[in-house]
Amino acid sequence: NFGGDCAVRLGDVLVRVLPGRSGAGEKVSVVVRPERVRLGVMSENTAVVMDGHIHQAVYLGPMRKYVIETAGGIRFIARVHSGSADAAFEAGQHVRISWGLADGVVLPSG
């Protein structure tokens, strides 16, 4: 517990989340909308930071889609505008991913 927030273990990283509908010790999934995942850029509302590498980079016209894999094998999808500062990554490149506390939704697994 982080002062009202809760924590979920994603691989070997303890991640802050808002309280969900699951109890302590239950298996859960943390879902973050792809456009809310930030790459390499952190702001004052950043609550979660993880390191990973770009597994796949796909150019989609005005957007780029990235599949990021952490050292623990967890995959995230990020979608960013092609012209933004956090849109110039290539496959294999190390990247820091982050999102705000309210962006992570906890759902029961199973």
Distance between the termini: 23 Å
Query: Number of helical segments?
Result: 0
The side-by-side strand order for the widest beta sheet comes to: 4-8-5-6-7
Helix content: under 10%
What is the H-and-E element order? EEEEEEEEE
SS content category: mainly beta
Low-confidence stretches: none
Largest sheet: 5 strands, antiparallel
Average pLDDT, to the nearest integer? 81
Number of strands: 9
Estimated share of beta-strand residues: over 45%
Envelope shape:
globular
Computed over alpha carbons, the radius of gyration is 14 Å
Protein described:
There is one protein chain. The protein has 110 residues and is an all-beta fold. Helix content is 0%, strand content 54%. The chain has no helices and nine strands. The chain has strands spanning 6-10, 13-17, 28-32, 38-39, 46-60, 63-70, 75-81, 94-100, 104-108. Strand 1 (6-10) and strand 2 (13-17) form a beta hairpin. The mean pLDDT is 81.
Gist of the model:
Helix content is 0%, strand content 54%. With 110 residues, it is an all-beta fold.
Give a topology summary.
Blueprint: E1 6-10, E2 13-17, E3 28-32, E4 38-39, E5 46-60, E6 63-70, E7 75-81, E8 94-100, E9 104-108
Antiparallel strand pairs: 1-2, 3-9, 4-8, 5-6, 5-8, 6-7
Q: What labels would you give this structure?
A:
110 residues, mainly beta, 5-stranded antiparallel sheet, two-stranded antiparallel ribbon, globular
